[in-house]
Amino acid sequence: MKWIHFLLASALAACTPGQCEKGTLPEAEPANGDTEPIQRTGTGTAPALPTATVYANERFKEVTVEGTGEHEFLVRGRGQLFEASFSWVVEDGHDELKQGHGMTAAGAPEWGKFEFTIDVEKTRPNSTLTLILFVASAMDGSRQHELPIVLY
Questions:
Q1: What are 48-86's pLDDT values in tens digits?
Q2: Quick check: helix, strand or coil at residue 38?
Q3: If residue 6 lies in a helix (H) or strand (E), which one and from where to where?
Q4: Closest by alpha carbon to 100, among 86, 120, 81?
Q5: Residue 39 class from Cβ within 10 Å (0-12 exposed, 13-18 middle, 19+ buried)?
Q6: Residue 121 needs a FRET pair 20 to 30 A away by CA distance; which of 57, 89, 131, 151 works?
């Protein structure tokens, strides 16, 4: 985990004025005189998500997704949630492929940590899988405070 903080700090320190505000990071410098830039990838065989991508909205913050296997993802973050409860779903644009519930380490008004894994595979090769974190309404069960994250 410390190396991720080091990488993030190094990338942010290398930003030119205005570059990081636009959401782009500078290209990696070649190592040992190589002419090709260093490729940044995740761990495992799942498609690599940008390591510096952190997702947030009004109820979720510091959310990261890391590929840990061929179709497996580790989701971490913090939530400020009533009764520390949230739900999630993985969609492919047509169908819900997986769904579940999670708990944070503390309920609102605290920001409690959470962590869970998802093992999900595409059913359509040209589809895009999206993880959506949300809070289910106590009144009618509708989704509130949705946080969409593209997996691959």
A1: 554 558 999 999 999 999 999 989 999 999 999 999 999
A2: coil
A3: helix 2-13
A4: 86
A5: exposed
A6: 57
The amino acid present at 106, given as its one-letter code, is A
Q: What amino acid is encoded at 29 in this protein?
A: E
Q: Is 20 exposed, middle or buried (0-12, 13-18, 19+ CB in 10 A)?
A: middle
In DSSP terms, which residues pair with 134 in a beta bridge?
Answer: 87
Q: What is the pLDDT of residue 47?
A: 54
145: nearest Cα among 90, 81, 96, 73: 81
Q: Where are the beta strands (DSSP E) in 107-152?
A: 112-119, 130-136, 143-150
